[in-house]
Amino acid sequence: MVRDIMIGAWAAALVFCLVVGYDPALVVLAGGAAALAQLLLSGRITGQRFEVARQTCAGPKTTKLTFGDVGGQESAKRELVEALEFIKNEDSAVRLGIRPLRGILLSGPPGTGKTLLARAAASYTDAAFISAAGSDFVEMYAGVGARRVRDLFSTARSTAAAQRKRTAVIFIDEIDVLGGVRGKHSSHLEYDQTLNQLLVEMDGLVSASRNGVRVLVVGATNRADLLDPALLRPGRFDRVVSVDLPDREGRRRILEIHTKRKPLADDVDLGRVAAEAFGFSGAYLESLTNEAAIMALRAGRARITMDDFSEAMEKVIMGEKINRRPDVDELLRVAVHEVGHAVASELLRSGSVAAVTVSSRGKALGYVRQSPQSDTYIETRVELESRMSTLLAGAVSEELILGERSTGAMQDIEQAVETARKIVNCGLSDLGIISEEDIPREQYHEAIWRLVKAQEDRTRSLLGEYSEFIRNVAGELMDVERIDGDSFRERLAQAA
User: Fold this and answer.
1) CB 118 within 8 A of CB 220
2) Does domain 328-495 have CATH number 1.10.3210.10?
3) Which residues participate in catalysis according to the annotation?
4) Is the dihedral of CA 178, 182, 187, 190 positive or negative?
5) CATH 3.40.50.11270: does it fit domain 50-242?
6) Per-residue buried b or exposed e for 61-95, using 16+ beta carbons within 10 Å of the residue's own CB
7) CATH class of the structural domain 248-318
8) Hey, which bits of 304-402 come out as E strands?
9) pLDDT tens digits, one per residue of 244-273
10) Terminal-residue alpha carbon distance, the chain
11) CB–CB of 76/241 below 8 Å?
12) What's the pLDDT score for residue 264?
């Protein structure tokens, strides 16, 4: 109606100018500016409104996902289910005087299943599911972001009412884009206005019990530390659920889910694959199973073998093989370097080598893929020193066999120095507990140098007895390109 009145007033002003003989250009210009402003605020130029763009997210496909389809996040699922029980069993919550939750924040690294958990939450509570991304709300035009927040909540309520559901779940991915600390954007206040509108909507001052629909906001972020404190206080995001990288058993469960419809050969051991995939998120594990299936297809096999998983693991970690083959002398140096790493790794931690290869992948001319025996989250000084020794073994091996080192050890040396710095900073060195900012720089650097030098000497002594073995295996590796961990251990045991 307001638009019709404005159009009528503009037309009357135009007619008046024509009748009295005034120039109507200013009136026409004002009408055009008003029309443009209306289009911007309605979202027809800057993007579709949520009523159109997000309706499809509430379709029947999303309601089929359950918590049983999300693997490796048992702790997060338990905490999330407990929070959702207050919504699902509303009568029991009311009897105990429990205030309904308004928001749940899922915080964790990328690819750990935060979106899947949000969709499973909607299915668990039998709620309408609407999704958006933090970047959808922010525009250079003032007022558009706040308008889109209002549209989002309005869409959620109307969608739930149309589906005859009492609850709507709004999932906002990368909410740190929308909910960052206020005042940091000095150029304009559009970010702050958008966040203010979200705070008002979550408070329920505008949307409480409208149409009898309760709205639950589920946010996901990789950086919870960037969020505005007002967004994290109780009454808005009442629960912060940590969605971390899965442990070994969690990885095995995720692999089982993703291989459920894939034909596996009898030699496939998902427990072993899960052990070798330490540090993989759910997304990387899905990619691993998909790449393994692609490897089997390339080889013309009807079933996926363990070799396919090993090849896929190396591709996911290092990248696809590239057509870059060094000349004979350089290839020998690469082989000697990698065999040195493998020997030190096995001597210091038996069973740790999964494969040794001189195949070029990404920026690496060769590499040793290690297999952790168990998931470890803390390390002792002995373990850190063993890691340093393994890192320095490539350069030391080149020196022992070929007479000099090369630039190929640069990254290894950087990691070894960083490991030594960790030993000092964690109070594990001879200096004891120190503050990096307060200790004299010369003393600090000398402590790091002593640690690196000690492990360099240790590694030289360790590999000295295996010089002939390193030379022989390096020559064989130049021909076959890859030796798996079991074969390497057999050769090392015979040489001992």
Assistant:
1) yes
2) no
3) 338
4) positive
5) no
6) ebbebebeebbbbeebbebbeebbebbeeeeebee
7) mainly alpha
8) 353-357, 367-370
9) 888 888 899 999 999 999 999 999 999 989
10) 91
11) yes
12) 93
